[in-house]
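Hi V.,

Quick status before I head out on leave. The structure for the redesign project is tokenized and pasted below; the design run finished overnight.
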């Protein structure tokens, strides 16, 4: 496992490194903001720990942009915060936003928290994407059934049976047949 520590202040970064004593993996410290995203991509860390101290709004937003791009657990340490910064960190995908909590003894538990929250959020996103995909498929199948019902003057169960029969005879999924029906209908100038 690789951990990237991002901190412009070497003394603060050493606190995080101390908290990771005994960690079995690679630890990389990034001390500057120039080319930050490229350096993170080069390291390809599994976890990112950012210690920002007391950042300006612009610096905070810059780090939030980095966290939006990374699909990894991120723990961010700041000295002070406000509700807007916390909300922005959540929107940016920060797994743990720790205010005034930089202490070596807290690093490992916060690291575990960030990983667990990231994994839980990733599962929720996957479930949401799956649900949206199923809903879109259902809408396409319903549209294909309506097209068949209108064009052939058949009932909904008969339209679904036609889709299913064609899917089985061509060894394809019903959604594939439904998409073909909808596409053909649209090409033929259907409404």
């Amino acid at each position: 496992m690789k951990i990237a520590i991002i901190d412009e202040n070497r003394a603060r970064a050493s606190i995080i490194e101390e908290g990771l004593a005994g960690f079995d993996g690679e630890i990389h410290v990034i001390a500057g903001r120039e080319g930050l995203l490229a350096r993170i991509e080069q390291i390809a860390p599994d976890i990112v720990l950012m210690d920002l101290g007391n950042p300006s709004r612009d610096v905070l937003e810059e780090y939030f942009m980095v966290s939006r791009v990374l699909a990894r657990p991120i723990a961010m340490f700041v000295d002070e915060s406000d509700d807007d910064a916390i909300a922005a960190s959540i929107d940016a995908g920060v797994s743990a936003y720790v205010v005034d909590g930089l202490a070596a003894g807290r690093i490992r538990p916060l690291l575990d928290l960030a990983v667990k929250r990231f994994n839980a959020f990733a599962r929720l996103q996957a479930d949401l994407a799956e649900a949206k995909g199923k809903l879109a498929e259902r809408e396409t199948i319903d549209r294909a059934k309506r097209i068949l019902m209108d064009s052939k003057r058949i009932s909904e169960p008969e339209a679904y049976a036609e889709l299913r029969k064609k899917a089985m005879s061509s060894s394809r999924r019903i959604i594939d047949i439904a998409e073909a029906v909808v596409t053909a209908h649209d090409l033929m100038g259907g409404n």
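Above is the designed sequence. The chain has a mean pLDDT of 87.

G. will cover questions while I'm gone.

Best,
W.
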